[in-house]
Design goal:
By secondary structure, the chain is mainly beta. The protein is built from two helices and 18 strands. The longest helix has 8 residues. The protein is elongated and about 80 Å long.
Length: 217
């Protein structure tokens, strides 16, 4: 709206005109009595990410957030040099399972309230990497044609839930950094370093234990 339109609506022709002034880098001023505003989405180009330099640290208790819009993120996906941040872990998990994201890595990010939903992974070929101190209140279910590698895990206190996985199908690898998890295998093909798993229950499937002794079951 122009200054003249504002004055007309105010009904006072003697009112001072309103100007918007922009000062350029060389000291000049550009003055206009009109302005337009475009609403745009933040490109999250200035993200503070405590996991960026400590991808396997496992005990991070600091949020990941954008300095521009102050959004806090609950997940990220990396593939090569590309990084995408998500407010919603479920949305990130859904994208990680898409064929165009094959080979990506999905990171749950720190959330002081934990994650109260339930991830069900049925397809895709990606890595689930823990780098923060956060606990899932419900088991992660893996079935279908999923090809998943699980790596990393922080230590948890007696007051926190151990992360739990139920494997019903697919191909799953718990590598040597996948620690502190409770794993139930009902089907599928599973490879693991057993000495890092908190509790292992095998009801079916094909299981290969690559190193260490068996945990309690």
């Amino acid at each position: 709206m122009s200054a003249d339109e504002i004055i007309d609506k105010a009904g006072d022709s003697d009112a001072a005109k309103i100007y918007f002034v922009v000062t350029t880098g060389d000291g000049y001023e550009i003055k206009s009595n009109t302005v337009s505003i475009d609403l745009v989405d933040c490109d999250h180009s200035q993200v503070v990410d405590p996991t960026a330099d400590k991808e396997t640290a496992g005990n991070i208790t600091e949020p990941t957030y954008c300095e521009i819009c102050e959004s806090k993120f609950n997940a990220k996906i990396t593939k090569g040099d590309d990084v995408r941040y998500y407010n919603n872990l479920d949305e990130a998990a859904k994208d990680a399972q898409k064929s165009e994201n094959e080979g990506c890595t999905l990171y749950p990010l720190y959330n002081k309230n934990g994650y109260g939903g339930q991830l069900v992974i049925t397809e895709g070929n990606f890595t689930l990497k823990y780098a923060v101190r956060t606990a899932f209140s419900r088991p992660i279910i893996i079935n279908g044609k999923a090809k998943l590698t699980v790596t990393g895990r922080c230590s948890v206190t007696a007051f926190e839930n151990q992360d739990a996985f139920i494997v019903q199908g697919g191909d799953v690898t718990f590598d040597g950094l996948a620690t502190g998890s409770n794993v139930t295998i009902n089907g599928g093909n599973v490879t693991m370093a057993a000495n890092n798993i908190n509790c292992l229950t095998i009801n079916g499937g094909n299981v290969s234990i690559s190193s260490g002794g068996l945990p309690k079951s």
